[in-house]
Specification:
Length: 282
């Protein structure tokens, strides 16, 4: 299992009156979530809270293999059971937000992004809907693990030359968000992790003002707590136009419990084998 040092900050920024972001950190199961809410009259903060609460509660059902934990029917055979559970939690959040928005006029058209990371014994799982990025820093290089669900990102993939002309207009126009429709399609990836790896999850209040290279430089030279504070401060110094939420994770160690157990069993068997040979010789 992963031994992860984690720090998170959610800051209202300098221009907004309220904070519609939410974050969740659970080192006991190595689950980390950032959600950036949207909608009028407190609806954004309601949506982001539903996202983190729903994922927390659903994933919590599987702690210690509780008997009443129920797997959802929709699953993807190309990813692990843990990845399917994380995606299922996002789907449940989508249903909850969409249902509430349809039953309460105050919450009409509310929604949220979500970016979530879960560490298993061997891999890290990154899942997202929307444009809140997940960065992996490995061997002094930074890589985007999440898939930005924006008009601009999709146009960049099709026609990068012409897409640049519309960057100002379509940069924050989402093609997917949790709760704005009956169904969503989260992107998910699984990749091995190593001791020393660093992950950064954030809302666009950070990524709009701080470049990936600047994030890399700060997190690789500072302790996670100081790095988190430095990133938020830098985004505020550059305007703080939006809420700023950041989680910084550093893998301190990676322990394979199954490997340790197998090694112990192997040693016990060796001892008994030696004892058996010894007694038969004499």
């Amino acid at each position: 299992m992963a031994v992860v040092e984690s720090t998170g900050i959610s800051d209202v920024g300098r221009k907004r009156k309220k904070n519609e972001d939410a974050l969740y950190i659970d080192n006991s199961i190595n689950l980390f979530v950032v959600a950036d809410g949207m909608g009028g009259h407190n609806a954004g903060e309601v949506a982001s809270a539903i996202v983190v609460d729903t994922i927390r509660d659903y994933m919590g059902r599987f702690i210690d293999n509780k008997i009443d934990a129920e797997e959802l029917e929709d699953s993807d055979d190309s990813v692990s059971q843990e990845a399917n559970r994380l995606v299922s939690g996002i789907h449940l959040a989508n249903k909850g937000i969409y249902s509430l928005s349809k039953s309460n006029e105050s919450y009409e058209a509310m929604g949220s992004t979500v970016s979530a990371v879960l560490f298993t014994k061997e891999n890290l799982i990154a899942a997202n809907v929307g444009d809140s990025p997940i960065y992996l820093i490995h061997n002094d290089s930074i890589e985007l693990l999440s898939v930005p669900h924006t008009v601009l990102a999709e146009q960049m993939a099709i026609d990068p030359q012409n897409a640049k002309m519309f960057e100002h207009h379509f940069k924050h126009m989402l093609t997917q968000a949790v709760g704005i429709g009956e169904t969503i399609k989260p992107d998910v990836c699984e990749t091995p992790f190593f001791k020393g790896d660093i992950l950064v999850l954030s809302s666009d209040g950070l990524s709009d003002n701080v470049t990936p290279d600047e994030i890399l430089e700060i997190v690789r030279t500072e302790h996670p707590q100081k790095a988190c504070r430095a990133l938020v401060d830098l985004a505020n110094e550059r305007g703080g136009n939006d809420n700023i939420t950041v989680i910084v994770l550093k893998v301190k160690d990676k322990k394979n419990q199954n490997g340790l157990l197998k090694g112990l069993i192997s040693k016990i068997r060796s001892i008994f084998k030696v004892f058996f040979i010894f007694t038969n010789l004499y």
